[in-house]
Specification:
The complex is a heterodimer of chains A (399) and B (411).
Chain A: E1 2-6, H1 7-18, E2 32-38, E3 41-47, E4 51-58, E5 60-62, E6 89-92, H2 93-101, E7 107-113, E8 118-123, E9 126-131, E10 148-153, H3 154-164, E11 179-185, E12 188-194, E13 198-205, E14 214-219, H4 220-229, E15 236-241, E16 247-251, E17 255-260, E18 279-284, H5 285-299, E19 305-311, E20 319-327, E21 331-342, E22 346-351, H6 352-360, E23 366-371, E24 378-382, E25 388-392, E26 395-396
Antiparallel strand pairs in A: 1-5, 1-7, 2-3, 2-6, 3-4, 4-17, 7-8, 8-9, 10-15, 11-12, 11-14, 12-13, 13-25, 15-16, 16-17, 18-21, 18-23, 19-20, 19-22, 20-21, 23-24, 24-25
Helix pairs in contact in A: 1-2, 3-4, 5-6
Chain B: E1 6-10, E2 25-30, H1 33-41, E3 50-53, E4 61-64, H2 66-69, H3 79-85, E5 90-92, H4 98-111, E6 117-121, E7 124-128, H5 133-136, H6 139-154, E8 158-163, H7 166-176, E9 180-184, H8 189-193, H9 206-214, H10 220-225, H11 228-235, H12 237-247, E10 263-274, H13 277-297, E11 300-311, E12 316-327, H14 330-347, E13 352-364, E14 367-368, H15 376-394, H16 402-405
Parallel strand pairs in B: 1-9, 3-5, 8-9
Antiparallel strand pairs in B: 2-7, 2-8, 3-4, 6-7, 10-13, 11-12, 11-13
Helix pairs in contact in B: 4-6, 11-12, 13-14
The chains are: A alpha+beta (399), B alpha+beta (411).
């Protein structure tokens, strides 16, 4: 079977699935990419068993009748492979990706050589052969065709993931925290992530309503991949979740992502958001960001602590917030930024990374921070993101 | 313990009010401390040659009385060597528990003289006496007063070295022993150090001495004058600069004597090589407790835990791991050390001669609060602090972890 496509398309397609190729695999075939002709498109799939990404690219496909292949070379054909369709084969991903990326932007002609489970390829004045395996060696990608469905506007999902996913735990000590809780209800979706020290929650509107009334935990990495894959042509992202709540499918225009879901009980995040507050300080986002960045320089040599002092100002004068950090044997710094302060004079200390992380994902002019005592959680909200709440636990410090 | 101590003065220590502040650091060191305490417990030992140290086959000398020192016996010498050098001395093992009590009383006397006392070990401490002369008189008077009080209240003899920084002060007290008082003025520091052997400088051990000897450097004066390039090849840029500065009598004089420790470690050499993993792990726990206690006393937390093993054939392996967040609880330190221990033993399971636990990457004690009630670290920390308090008051044996009790305290 012959497939013809553009180097640029093939390269882009491989880059998409390449993110799912296993890096260090116990199952060697997961380091391969599955290549399948599908109608008049070419389908590429890669999986690391947690996440599977498939992409379809435009191609010209010419079937060569199987009867034209001499009998003696067809001995390898396997009955299990037939449902992958004719021409399907798996090829080591790293070699293929690197080679295609080094080709000129021309037509690539691929001979899907199912006799020997490999491909022969031609592009401009280059030829190459890749040895692969038969498709039925490739781990089956779970089918998520019938299940609960919701449709989220692509831009809205992208923003929510950006503002939430970073708060998920990076280490595996509590697996549920490595995921992002997604709750679907009528016309709204909510994403929440927490690593034990901070919590990010964002809600948004669905496109239409969903009959699904459910909550699942999606690996944070999957959501970040989906966010990256959403392209200009994607207006919406369709999400399907299996009956068993074991897997979920994210459907874009020409990309599908199937992911395992994290099993377990996610903390009740509603209860982690403080209800009352003592002091609310509102500052310019850029000011706060700059002061935090500057303070991080000293903080990184100390214990990563940034101390904030909120001073309401007296007799109608404007308030200010001091952003301080110090490192033993290095020095210290202080930034003072104008602030609207509603409430008492107060102070609180945060891990500089937590503060930089949340400020970096916000946009708009103003950001507000609600605090109560130096040892109670701080709440960050941004004027531009009405549905967003970020709770961050302070550091207990010797003032 | 002779009446009236030898007083040496190198130059005249004068304070010029108003000029740039020269720091005044005292190094107070108790003479043959363990021996002195043993003599308090058993006055019949007074005047006799006494060596205190480990009595096992690998024991080392903790302290030797001045009567034995003339035979070449000094601390850290293997006991077997000491026996050969001074066969007629009285050899005894340390009486645990008493030294700590005397040491605490010693430190509390020092605290009457300066608010800035840095305890360097059980029997020595640095005092920042800068600006104390108005209150306590010139250094000679306050140093004499310290010696007098230590002698009167503890019946132990202290030597005091005074210098513009901790290094000079320490060398001065060493030089003045026994029962000495030596004051070195800042402008005379270089001159004072110059004729001394490089080995006298704290931080220069046998290996560095050898390397310096290879470069033809035998005295601190030669070290201070040595071209930096020559030293850099043997010691690296930073260390070379540091050594040369120190040898010239310059020090971290702008910093307080409470200079933060970079790491805290504790080691244990076995009398007989040990292959029993459970016992090794139990020793690691007991070392972790020791390290943890010093870490908490220094009001720090550690981000790095290091495990050191020396096998019977003297091959030494050290392995480290980085923890986030930083820890200060005994169990957290032991947990990390234990993990490293298994790792090392999995690679090579052979009889072990020495095991050590160290923490480094020391940071402020500040704690990141958790929102999910994840308080295991806090609990470990709080339990460890409570144990510290009990031991401080009733002695080290007053409370023992169950793990270690099953070893009969004999880990």
């Amino acid at each position: 079977m012959w497939v013809t496509c553009l180097q640029e398309n093939l390269s882009r397609g491989l880059a998409v699935v390449g993110r799912a190729v296993a890096s260090r695999a116990t199952l060697p075939v997961t380091q391969n990419v599955l290549i399948q002709p599908d109608g008049n498109r070419l389908k590429l799939t890669a999986t690391n068993l947690e996440i599977a990404i498939s992409v379809w690219l435009g191609a010209q496909i010419e079937a060569v009748s199987i009867d034209s292949i001499p009998d003696k070379t067809r001995g390898d054909l396997c009955p299990d492979c037939t449902h992958f369709g004719e021409g399907a084969v798996t090829i080591p991903a790293r070699t293929l990706i690197d080679f295609i990326n080094s080709m000129p932007d021309r037509k690539v002609e691929i001979d899907l050589n199912t006799e020997a489970w490999g491909i022969n390829l031609q592009c401009a004045n280059y030829t190459a052969s890749f040895y692969g395996t038969k498709p039925c060696d490739f781990p089956p990608v779970p089918s998520v065709e019938d299940g609960a469905t919701a449709i989220i506007p692509a831009e809205s999902l992208k923003g929510s993931v950006e503002r939430v996913a970073f708060a998920a735990a990076a280490d595996d000590s509590r697996p549920v925290l490595t995921g992002v809780k997604m709750d679907l209800s009528e016309s709204r979706y909510t994403l929440a992530a927490a690593d034990g020290f901070r919590l990010a929650v964002d809600t948004g509107e669905l496109s239409g309503e969903t009959e699904a009334e459910l909550g699942v935990i999606i690996p944070a990495r999957t959501l970040s991949e989906v966010q990256r894959l959403v392209g200009d042509r994607d207006k919406t992202v369709e999400i399907k979740i299996t009956e068993s709540r074991g897997q979920a499918l994210f459907k874009l225009q020409s990309v599908e992502v199937v992911t395992q879901l994290v099993q377990g009980t996610f903390p009740d995040y509603e209860k982690l958001i403080p209800v009352g507050h003592g002091t609310v300080v509102t500052v310019d986002l850029q000011d706060f960001m700059q002061a935090t960045r500057a303070a991080s320089i000293f903080a990184r040599d100390g214990s990563g602590i940034i101390r904030l002092f909120m001073n309401p100002g007296e007799g109608g004068s404007d308030g200010e917030m001091k952003v301080q950090s110090r490192a033993e044997e290095v020095g210290d710094n202080e930034g003072v930024i104008p602030a609207k302060i509603d409430g008492e004079e107060s102070r609180v200390a945060f891990n500089s990374k937590f503060l930089t992380d949340v400020l970096a994902v916000l946009d708009g002019d103003e950001v507000s921070l609600e605090t109560t005592t130096p040892s109670s959680p701080g709440v960050v909200r941004a004027g531009n993101h009405a549905g967003y709440t970020h709770v961050v636990m302070p550091m207990f410090v010797q003032w | 313990m002779g009446e009236g101590w030898g007083v040496f003065c190198v130059g005249l220590y004068a304070f010029r009010g108003g000029s740039a502040v020269e720091r005044t650091i005292f190094h107070v060191d108790l003479d043959a401390f363990f021996v002195a305490v043993e003599r308090l417990l058993d006055p019949s030992l007074v005047g006799k040659p006494v060596v205190v140290g480990g009595m096992g086959p690998r024991g080392v000398v903790s302290a030797a009385s001045y009567e034995v020192r003339k035979f070449g016996v000094h601390s850290a010498l293997p006991m077997s060597t000491a026996r050969r050098l001074a066969p007629r001395a009285i050899f005894m093992s340390p009486t645990h528990g008493v030294y700590g009590k005397v040491s605490r009383r010693f430190k509390s006397i020092l605290e009457d003289f300066s608010p800035d006392v840095h305890s360097a070990s059980i029997d020595e401490a640095y005092l920042d006496m800068t600006g104390c002369e108005r209150l306590l008189g010139p250094p000679f008077e306050s140093a004499s007063a310290i010696k007098r009080r230590v002698r009167d209240e503890l019946s132990v003899v202290a030597s005091v070295g005074v210098g513009p920084n901790d290094v000079v002060a320490k060398v001065a007290s060493e030089e003045s022993k026994p029962d000495g008082l030596l004051i070195v003025r800042g402008s005379d520091a270089a001159e004072f150090l110059a004729p001394l052997a490089v080995r006298k400088l704290p931080g220069i051990g046998p290996k560095a001495t050898e390397r310096l000897q290879a470069l033809g450097i035998g005295t601190l004066g030669e070290l201070a004058r040595a071209p930096l390039g020559v030293l850099v090849r043997s010691f690296g840029q930073r260390h070379a600069e540091y050594l040369r500065r120190r040898a010239a009598g310059e020090g971290s004089s702008t910093r307080s004597v409470r200079e933060a420790a970079k790491s805290i470690s504790s080691e244990r050499t076995f009398d007989y090589d040990v292959l029993d993993r459970d016992r090794l792990d139990a020793v690691a726990l007991s070392l972790s407790e020791k390290v943890g206690r010093r870490l908490r006393r220094a009001e720090r937390k550690a981000r790095v835990v290091v495990l050191k093993l020396r096998y019977g054939d003297f091959t030494t392996v050290s392995r480290r791991c980085t923890l986030s967040p930083a820890v200060d609880g005994d169990l957290a330190i032991h947990g990390a050390a234990s993990g490293l221990l298994w790792e090392v033993l999995r690679e090579r399971l052979d009889p072990v001669r020495l095991i050590g636990v160290a923490v480094s990457g020391l940071v402020e004690r500040e704690t990141q609060l958790s929102m999910l009630g994840d308080s295991s670290g806090l609990e470990d920390s709080a339990v460890s602090v409570a144990i510290d308090a009990i031991r401080e008051r009733y002695g080290d044996g007053a409370i023992v972890r169950g793990r270690l009790a099953s070893f009969g305290g004999g880990v």
